């Protein structure tokens, strides 16, 4: 096994005896390079990768601070250390301010001090390098995450647009036009399949241009289009995507897209999710017997399973980055506190991802345990301390006015699932309050009566139109949000119903309120 390459240290001093001594003492630990002047040091830096630089202060033409100041601009990643025979505090301060030195060492130096300083400097260099790589990876993952969010938004909008259409031709027209734009496809059309599931030139949808050459090409391939999406290279620069529209034992034909290969990378899981949305609406139109709500939950599960799988990558990267911030020489109490909070939130997001994946597969497991309401609520509100203060949102815990009711001390439930509910309600309130001027208030009222827990979350944001209130908990229904999937309140209702409770909403010109009722214990 090859030994790891030594780290490189450059020592700059106009005294050749000091250079020889430094090389002799520390050359067995590091790859030591030496220079007798700042000019020579800059030449070495231009040709060799250096991790740590020791520079003597007293040198002609260019002193140590001047050299370190130039290196700060040209080679900012190098860890810089000033060596001075004078203990003048002004020199040290000047070195820190102008040369951004890691530390300074007095002459004559102590060998152990130099070894320790070099070791720590190398560790800092490696940590900075890992940070740069991690931030770059995080940026890449964030771009992927934004792409996945946009895909989910598109799927949501497509589902909403198709939901109210009652014409087979209209459903196909909208689907083809939207997907063609999303995929930046050059051409898009629809074909029917014959009884042997072979691509047939029978064209159902004639309002869009049809490329007969492509259809002839596909027919000659003798393809069997069954359940999976097929990709075929067509000419040198184009690729054809054949997306079968199958629902249970029924086939509704095939969508075909022609895409330039260099310009676009197409995500197959996204196409599968889009095909599920299209074919489910075609099936709804044809049979007129589907339960719409069950269909929407099916689409939700398919989309969530597709997109959430891709979210695990960036979440893992974020977790590693946060953990890195809590280590090393970051001794600030405040940074450690924020790191702890962020770690807890990433853990919560990870649990939410696992929960959504289980939900997509139809697997739901609740962990019922006693919940102390006061600490449970404080933990959630603590997450909003900074943003609520910045946005001037006041949260008030209001005593209940219901006679014969008691204060909630504890009740039974799954704390992680219920936490998702209250965080969703607070996020909705926050977005609603961002649209008003003047006082911004959130009131939380709670009480216990007849073994039932009642919690009310109210805000003085804009009124929700009456025609939307009855549909507010349905999938894909959203109000007053520029971004969002319209799934948050649907999941909230499902969590509450799994706790054998209920959630309701009302709104008028003065306030919007969500009322949650839960049994005191699962046996009640």
Q: How many strand segments?
A: 16
Largest sheet: 5 strands, parallel
Tell me the CATH superfamily of the largest domain: GAF domain
- Helix percent reads 40-55%
**What are the segments in which pLDDT stays under 50 over at least 5 consecutive residues?**
201-207, 289-293
Spatial strand sequence of the major β-sheet: 2-1-3-4-5
Strand portion: 15-25%
Shape: flat
For this structure, the CATH topology of the largest domain is Beta-Lactamase
**Helix-strand category:** alpha/beta
Indicate how many domains the architecture comprises: 3
Distance between the termini: 66 Å
Gyration radius, rounded: 32 Å
What is the helix tally?
A: 15
How would you characterize this protein structure?
This protein is of the alpha/beta class. It folds into 3 domains: 8-109, Response regulator (Rossmann fold, 3-Layer(aba) Sandwich); 144-302, Beta-Lactamase; 369-519, Heat Shock Protein 90 (2-Layer Sandwich). The chain has helices at residues 16-26, 38-47, 64-74, 89-99, 111-163, 168-182, 212-221, 268-287, 292-325, 333-360, 373-382, 385-390, 415-433, 466-469, 488-498; strands at residues 8-12, 31-35, 52-56, 79-84, 103-106, 187-191, 230-234, 238-247, 250-260, 369-372, 393-398, 410-413, 440-449, 452-459, 502-507, 512-519. The N and C termini lie far apart (66 Å). Residues 201-207 and 289-293 have low confidence and may be disordered.
What is the element layout, followed by pairings?
Blueprint: E1 8-12, H1 16-26, E2 31-35, H2 38-47, E3 52-56, H3 64-74, E4 79-84, H4 89-99, E5 103-106, H5 111-163, H6 168-182, E6 187-191, H7 212-221, E7 230-234, E8 238-247, E9 250-260, H8 268-287, H9 292-325, H10 333-360, E10 369-372, H11 373-382, H12 385-390, E11 393-398, E12 410-413, H13 415-433, E13 440-449, E14 452-459, H14 466-469, H15 488-498, E15 502-507, E16 512-519
Parallel strand pairs: 1-2, 1-3, 3-4, 4-5, 11-13
Antiparallel strand pairs: 6-9, 7-8, 8-9, 10-12, 13-14, 14-16, 15-16
Helix pairs in contact: 3-4, 5-6, 5-8, 5-9, 6-8, 8-9, 9-10, 13-15
């Amino acid at each position: 096994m090859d030994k790891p390459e030594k780290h490189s240290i450059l020592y700059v001093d106009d005294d050749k005896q000091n250079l020889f001594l430094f090389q002799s003492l520390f050359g067995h630990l590091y790859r030591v390079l030496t220079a007798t002047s700042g000019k020579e040091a800059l030449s070495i830096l231009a040709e060799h990768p250096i991790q740590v630089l020791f520079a003597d202060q007293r040198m002609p033409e260019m002193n140590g601070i001047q050299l370190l100041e130039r290196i700060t601009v040209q080679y900012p990643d190098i860890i810089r250390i000033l060596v001075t025979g004078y203990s003048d505090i002004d020199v040290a301060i000047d070195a820190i301010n102008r040369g951004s030195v890691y530390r300074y060492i007095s002459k004559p130096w102590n060998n152990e001090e130099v070894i320790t300083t070099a070791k720590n400097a190398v560790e800092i260099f490696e940590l900075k390098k890992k940070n740069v790589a991690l931030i770059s990876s995080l940026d890449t993952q964030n771009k992927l995450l934004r792409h996945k969010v946009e895909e989910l938004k598109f799927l949501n909008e497509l589902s909403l647009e198709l939901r109210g259409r009652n014409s087979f031709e209209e459903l196909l027209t909208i689907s083809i036009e939207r997907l063609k734009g999303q995929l930046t496809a050059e051409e898009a059309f629809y074909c029917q399949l014959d009884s042997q599931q072979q691509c047939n030139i029978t064209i159902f949808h004639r309002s869009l241009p049809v490329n007969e050459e492509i259809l002839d090409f596909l027919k000659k391939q003798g393809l069997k289009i069954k359940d999976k999406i097929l990709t075929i290279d067509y000419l040198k620069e184009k690729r054809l995507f054949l997306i079968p529209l199958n629902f249970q034992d029924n086939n509704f034909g095939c969508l075909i897209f022609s895409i330039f290969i260099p310009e676009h990378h197409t995500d197959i899981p996204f196409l599968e999710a889009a095909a599920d949305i299209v074919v489910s609406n075609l099936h709804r139109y044809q049979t007129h017997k589907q339960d719409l709500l069950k269909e929407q939950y099916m689409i939700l599960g398919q989309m969530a399973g597709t997109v959430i799988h891709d979210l695990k990558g960036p979440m893992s990267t974020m977790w590693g980055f946060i953990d890195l911030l809590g280590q090393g020489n970051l001794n600030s109490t405040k940074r450690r506190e924020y790191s702890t909070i962020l770690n807890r939130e990433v853990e919560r997001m990870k649990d939410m991802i696992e929960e959504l994946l289980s939900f997509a597969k139809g697997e739901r497991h609740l962990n019922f345990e006693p919940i102390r309401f006061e600490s449970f609520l404080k933990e959630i509100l603590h997450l909003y301390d900074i943003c609520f203060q910045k946005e001037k949102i006041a949260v008030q815990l209001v005593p209940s006015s219901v006679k014969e009711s008691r204060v909630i001390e504890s009740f039974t439930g799954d704390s992680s699932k219920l936490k998702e509910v209250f965080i969703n309600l607070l996020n909705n309130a926050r977005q609603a309050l961002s649209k008003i001027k003047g006082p911004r208030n959130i009131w939380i009222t709670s009480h216990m009566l007849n073994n039932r827990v009642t919690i009310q979350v109210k805000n003085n944001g804009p009124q929700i139109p009456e025609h939307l209130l009855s549909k507010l908990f349905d999938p894909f229904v959203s109000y007053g949000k520029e971004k969002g999937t319209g799934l948050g309140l649907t999941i909230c209702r499902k969590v509450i119903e799994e706790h054998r409770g209920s959630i309701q909403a009302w709104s008028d010109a003065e306030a919007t309120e969500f009322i949650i009722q839960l049994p005191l214990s699962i046996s009640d």
